[in-house]
Write the structure tokens for this entry.
Amino acid sequence: MDVNIHPSWKAQLAEEFEKEYFKNLIDFVKQEYTEHRCFPPGKEIFSAFDHCPFDEVKVVIIGQDPYHNVGQANGLCFSVRDGIPHPPSLINIFKEIERDLEQPYPESGNLERWAKQGVLLLNATLTVRAHQAGSHQGKGWEKFTDAVISTLSRKRENIIFLLWGGYAKKKGAKIDKTKHQILESGHPSPLSANRGYWFGNEHFSQTNGMLRGMGEDEIVW
């Protein structure tokens, strides 16, 4: 399977790639992509790592599963390709940015522009079968993405982790809170957002305030 992943991540995760569970995972993924329609496209499975080198990660956003409808997933959590209608969670993310930062709602839902500024957009599971949400959960991806979070926590300092919803908060158990900043809120999905757990979290202005305080460039959300 032809995938793109930045060399800095290849170096950091080399040991993980050699583990038995990861080899079994890749065998499973190859078979799924051969026998079924799956997303994102094979070469974009590791896009989150390709667009955001290890040493440039400033912010981590943790999602759960790639979008499972045609043309949506591009390997970055919450992100869709240019020209694709924005899914409900992404709409609520953009509405909060609009409210929090008083900037216009963006036309494109492609978040590569964030990744290139140091935002690692990490889904816990990196692949999915078309129209079957969660179909690749429990196959090894979660163990791999736990290792990614642990590696960042151990080897880097002062990363800002945005944990939205219960699932992301559980993944956050791997983060050393003495070395990194963590912001938590409800999930941007309509179910959570409409109950008042998302809107008003001000995570985007808070993140930029923290980056300013560290002498780092703010993210242009």
